[in-house]
Amino acid sequence: MADILPFQQKRPDPEPEPLWRDVLGQSLRAAREEQGGRLIDIAERAGISPQYLSEIERGRKEPSSEMIAAVTGALGIDLADLLFGIAGTVRRGGSTGLAVGRRPAGPLLMAA
What we know:
Blueprint: H1 20-35, H2 39-46, H3 50-57, H4 65-75, H5 79-92
Helix pairs in contact: 1-5, 2-3, 2-4
């Protein structure tokens, strides 16, 4: 005779972690809009095309570290603060309301 196995309901799949490039783009766009900066002006100061900056902001491109540094420089924001904010957002699972410049509480491990 067969054993009776308890019925296990399938748990809903957790929401997938956000992609780093999506959170980066949302953070850069939020910083730009908070300053009232236009896409074309920030792109010109960073030395990149407005189309490329738009693609970064929409999470379509994964820019090099040099490009990220150029955009943060054009925005006048600290690169380390931006990266801390992104790491915290990805770790929490993706709330898009980033505050650039706010450091996460507790220890943080970042890989290169």
